[in-house]
Amino acid sequence: MSVAVTIETIEKRFENFPALRGVSLDIQPGELVALLGPSGSGKTTLLRLIAGLEEADRGRVLFGETDTRELSLRDRRIGFVFQQYALFKTMNVAENIAFGLKSRPRHERPSNDEIRKRVRDLLDLVQLPGLEKRYPSQLSGGQRQRVALARALAIEPRVLLLDEPFGALDAKVRKDLRAWLRELHGRTGHTTVFVTHDQEEALELADRVAILNEGRIEQVGSADDVYDHPATPFICEFLGEVNKLPVKVVGSQAFFGDRPVLGGLSQNQGGPASLYVRPQHLRIVDETPLALPGTVEHLRRNGPLRRAEVAVEGLKKRLEVDLASQVAPAIGERIRLRITHGNLFAAA
Amino acid sequence: MTAATTTFRWREPSILPGFGLALGITVTALSLIVLIPLAALFLKAASAGPADIWAVATSPRTLAALKLSFSAALFAALVNAVFGLILAWVLVRYDFPGRRLIDAAVDLPFALPTAVAGISLAAIYAPNGWVGSLLAPLAFKLTIPFTGLSLGFDGKVAYTPLGVMVALIFIGLPFVVRTVQPVLEELQSDVEEAAALLGASRSRTIFRVVLPQILPALMTGSILAFARAVGEYGSVIFIAGNVPMVSEIAPLLIVIRLEQFDYAGAAVVATMMLLISFALILTGNLIQARARRRFGDV
Fold this sequence. Notes:
heterodimer, A: alpha+beta, five-stranded antiparallel beta sheet, about 25% helix, B: mainly alpha, MetI-like fold, 2 strands
């Protein structure tokens, strides 16, 4: 039932704004892929193109071997969950879910009893049993979200597309639904593509993450791939908080000013570069070699961790440093920081 | 549903002040402008005495006029519901040269003195007018077999009940367009896209998804158009021909009674119009309120 989706060098312009500039992506049958990017990066446009709600200027989308340009919207068999759910508010939950089945031509349409049974099964699947007679206005945001999903699943889609599926929900519901969706995908196995601007959501949920920026895919890979080995500075910055240090690479060492801050580099390109270091990859140390001296200027709470802002001579922005709970420097204290891990990009 | 079981109390809906003042102004203004004049109307009608009231109320001429007024207004409202909806749809959904002009022209029936509208319509639809002369050759008569009922069009619009309807359609159109337009504009396109992706044909999408959502607004507009049409006087009398028992509308009958100094008779006809209108409009509004309560806003 699930198909592979192949996206071939898609280009799309709106007026004079290039929304997508040559995007290619292979999605395996049954895979769960996240399209991640800031707003305006083209991720929603790409999703709508896969659905057939937009037409590409160049390039094509294949479902298996079939060119989707030859398929009508109905024949594409897409399950699409809209950001604002787009439920039919004049229909109750059961009618919403049954809408796709009842829209089929007469000879393909299941009997009314079958439709009723399917609606009941789908409501069980999305954990909303017994809500058939409710109207969308009587449901909470999370419930609407799940009804929208049940409605999309009712037509036995070949591809499931979700546009910012958790965008309009509060943090707690988001987390719950995320785990639930992951589990549901494991059970139903639809080829699924979802759009999000929340990197945490993408990394947690998806088999693979495709990161878009200004109409191009900058990197595709598993959560570990993209987080640990970001292909570009943009990805490094987009996936989480990061400190940026201008350095100079000589041999296997990176120098900040004339001070070596990171050693054991395998890259053989020398010269000026930018070193990206995440707050959790800075550690306060006692010894001097490969350490960066600085002054603690500010301390604050950041979720489970404490965060220090450390001013370093020669650096305009303070370094953000995550502190293990036992170490607690005072404000104004001089400390030394060691970089345990960093990503190096040649200076542009 | 719960409201029916709880006892009535003065409801102060929020902590913000202004409830008393607002309600005071409302009651005063409504009394001065609507309630007291209407009460005077009832009193005047009652002054005629039961026998006279009954005589006026059941006279064939009164009944014919009322029947024409209400049926023509209802018909005009239905035509406007369909035509106004299409017009609003075109104005909202499509962009074409002259769209703004048409959009502005929709309001003209509001602004134009009704007499001007009536005279123009009469001139155009008269047998020798631009449209009337085209319609004249289309006369036909159909007799439905076995029933004895016949259906016909004698080629004339002006100076017949058909002319009354044309005038009422003209003056009622803006109500439907202007109430439906904003609702159509706010309709989210994702609902239609969702329907299309679920495999619905375009007509199924329109009739099952779009129309139900704009139905409350469409009803509001149609009720307004109906209400306006029932009371319309100025434009109709020029095109109707005003033949008693055939094309004489109730408001005209009231004026005729007034000119004969039969104030009580005029008041009786007016009261009947008032009661029937009130009942019809109230029914329409109740149906609508139910729909709104049920579907809410998502």
